[in-house]
Amino acid sequence: MTLTVSTDIQEQLQTRCDYHFKDLNLLTQALTHPSFAAEQTPSPPDNQRLEFLGDSVLQLILSDLLFASLPDDKEGPLTRLRATLANESATASYAKKLGLQEAILLGKGEDQTGGRERQSILGDLFEAFLAAVYLDGGMDAARTLCLRLLPPVADSKRLLLAKDNPKGTLQELSQDRFKCKPKYSVLSCDGPVHDPNFVVSVSINNVEMGQGSGSSHRSAERQAASQALLKILQEDSAQD
């Protein structure tokens, strides 16, 4: 017998997202990772096809938003900013904001090895969920969902300028604003020796500001620094 997402979890998720599905089968499919589907008999539809569609939906929403918000920017900067807002790190953060990791159906092995926190899984999960919203409620519903999650365009543009050197930018900002340097800590390291996965956090004044993962300390720290910069910009925007 194929398992499904519990009714309580479905309801909590829809309330958090401020969207209630007319077709709950779409929601269940969006939350079904291939590793889970492979363990079921018969195998239910997984979220890979929805992920494919969701990527295009997100690209269109971002293109429309940036085109309208930045009338003086040329194609190159617009393309780079769209890529920043749609990359794996960004889409994984959107999934976490919605709490999708709590509802995803994972295979036992994937779940036991930290799949609920893996960026690649979370990024794909958000795209699949966005596609489900689009199919169920149309582009307006999908756009409304995205606009609740996206940082302000002006802040995203500022963050893009620091993309080439996020650690240096964060250190300068931290020393100027908080009078201290950021501190990086390795939270975990798993995977085979030839392909490790490091998870690193960055803290300022003993407050965690971001996390990142990667195949090296350096790449994980860069990602953590980018997340910290984004968080600071979002907090600045909320205070304006």
UniProtKB/TrEMBL annotation:
<comment type="similarity">
    <text>Belongs to the ribonuclease III family.</text>
</comment>
<dbReference type="GO" id="GO:0004525">
    <property type="term" value="F:ribonuclease III activity"/>
</dbReference>
<comment type="function">
    <text>Digests double-stranded RNA. Involved in the processing of primary rRNA transcript to yield the immediate precursors to the large and small rRNAs (23S and 16S). Processes some mRNAs, and tRNAs when they are encoded in the rRNA operon. Processes pre-crRNA and tracrRNA of type II CRISPR loci if present in the organism.</text>
</comment>
<dbReference type="GO" id="GO:0019843">
    <property type="term" value="F:rRNA binding"/>
</dbReference>
<dbReference type="GO" id="GO:0005737">
    <property type="term" value="C:cytoplasm"/>
</dbReference>
<feature type="domain" description="DRBM">
    <location>
        <begin position="165"/>
        <end position="234"/>
    </location>
</feature>
<keyword id="KW-0507">mRNA processing</keyword>
<dbReference type="GO" id="GO:0006397">
    <property type="term" value="P:mRNA processing"/>
</dbReference>
<dbReference type="GO" id="GO:0046872">
    <property type="term" value="F:metal ion binding"/>
</dbReference>
<dbReference type="InterPro" id="IPR011907">
    <property type="entry name" value="RNase_III"/>
</dbReference>
<dbReference type="Pfam" id="PF00035">
    <property type="entry name" value="dsrm"/>
</dbReference>
<feature type="active site">
    <location>
        <position position="55"/>
    </location>
</feature>
<keyword id="KW-0378">Hydrolase</keyword>
<feature type="domain" description="RNase III">
    <location>
        <begin position="10"/>
        <end position="138"/>
    </location>
</feature>
<dbReference type="GO" id="GO:0008033">
    <property type="term" value="P:tRNA processing"/>
</dbReference>
<keyword id="KW-0255">Endonuclease</keyword>
<dbReference type="GO" id="GO:0003725">
    <property type="term" value="F:double-stranded RNA binding"/>
</dbReference>
<feature type="binding site">
    <location>
        <position position="51"/>
    </location>
    <ligand>
        <name>Mg(2+)</name>
    </ligand>
</feature>
<dbReference type="InterPro" id="IPR014720">
    <property type="entry name" value="dsRBD_dom"/>
</dbReference>
<dbReference type="GO" id="GO:0006364">
    <property type="term" value="P:rRNA processing"/>
</dbReference>
<feature type="binding site">
    <location>
        <position position="127"/>
    </location>
    <ligand>
        <name>Mg(2+)</name>
    </ligand>
</feature>
<dbReference type="InterPro" id="IPR036389">
    <property type="entry name" value="RNase_III_sf"/>
</dbReference>
<dbReference type="GO" id="GO:0010468">
    <property type="term" value="P:regulation of gene expression"/>
</dbReference>
<keyword id="KW-0460">Magnesium</keyword>
<protein>
    <recommendedName>
        <fullName>Ribonuclease 3</fullName>
        <ecNumber>3.1.26.3</ecNumber>
    </recommendedName>
</protein>
<comment type="subunit">
    <text>Homodimer.</text>
</comment>
<keyword id="KW-0819">tRNA processing</keyword>
<keyword id="KW-0699">rRNA-binding</keyword>
<feature type="binding site">
    <location>
        <position position="124"/>
    </location>
    <ligand>
        <name>Mg(2+)</name>
    </ligand>
</feature>
<keyword id="KW-0479">Metal-binding</keyword>
<dbReference type="InterPro" id="IPR000999">
    <property type="entry name" value="RNase_III_dom"/>
</dbReference>
<keyword id="KW-0540">Nuclease</keyword>
<dbReference type="Pfam" id="PF14622">
    <property type="entry name" value="Ribonucleas_3_3"/>
</dbReference>
<feature type="active site">
    <location>
        <position position="127"/>
    </location>
</feature>
<keyword id="KW-0963">Cytoplasm</keyword>
<keyword id="KW-0698">rRNA processing</keyword>
<keyword id="KW-0694">RNA-binding</keyword>
